[in-house]
């Protein structure tokens, strides 16, 4: 089935492109979400009349998303979960859990904006991509720990290893006499 994209769709195309997709994808996702129109002469004419309006709306949404991205830069959430001695979680951390933690931190993020390939099943520190707009995404830190104290230890260890090594400004090292 051929459709006209009304906005940029990741891994598919840009606004205004006519693309061929499977009928189920069009019927169940693109058309109901108003991300596309069926490709025919009437819809092409409708799209061309609305193109400037759609581009302005897309620009406004992108600017809003960039503003939110600026506020959220460096955001890190902590999720406290029960785990075995080996670090395996009893259960898992999903996109919904991350979305709820971000919501509790004061950010308005939907579950579908959290891009998590598979649920997190062990303790540790992770980087998760948040897609705020088809053209704007950021990375958020997620720490999964048994307690807040353990999470703070993980965070402190990360900061220690991320600090650059100190060198002399000229790149020369001074020898010390003993």
Automatic annotation (TrEMBL):
GO terms for biological process: translation. Residues 158-178 are annotated as: Disordered. One of its GO terms (molecular function) is rRNA binding. Gene3D superfamilies: Ribosomal protein L9, C-terminal domain, Ribosomal protein L9, N-terminal domain. The keyword Ribosomal protein applies. Residues 159-178 have a biased composition (Acidic residues). Residues 13-40 form the Ribosomal protein L9 domain. Keywords: Ribonucleoprotein, Ribosomal protein, RNA-binding, rRNA-binding. GO terms for cellular component: ribonucleoprotein complex; ribosome. Binds to the 23S rRNA. Belongs to the bacterial ribosomal protein bL9 family. This is Large ribosomal subunit protein bL9. It comes from Novispirillum itersonii (Aquaspirillum itersonii). The gene is rplI.
């Amino acid at each position: 089935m051929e459709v006209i994209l009304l906005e940029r769709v990741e891994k598919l195309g840009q606004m205004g492109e006519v693309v061929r997709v499977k009928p189920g994808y069009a019927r169940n996702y693109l058309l109901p979400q108003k991300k596309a129109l069926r490709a025919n002469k009437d819809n092409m004419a409708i799209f061309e009349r609305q193109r400037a309006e759609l581009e302005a709306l897309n620009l406004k949404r992108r600017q809003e998303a960039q503003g939110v991205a600026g506020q959220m830069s460096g955001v890190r959430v902590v999720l406290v979960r029960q785990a075995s001695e080996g670090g395996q979680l009893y259960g898992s951390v999903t996109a919904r859990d991350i979305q709820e933690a971000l919501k509790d931190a004061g950010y308005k993020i939907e579950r579908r904006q959290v891009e998590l390939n598979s649920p997190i099943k062990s303790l540790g520190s992770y980087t998760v991509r948040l897609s705020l707009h088809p053209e704007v995404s950021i990375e958020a830190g997620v720490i999964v720990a048994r307690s807040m104290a353990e999470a703070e230890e993980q965070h402190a260890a990360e900061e220690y290893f991320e600090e650059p090594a100190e060198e002399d400004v000229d790149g020369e090292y001074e020898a010390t006499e003993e």
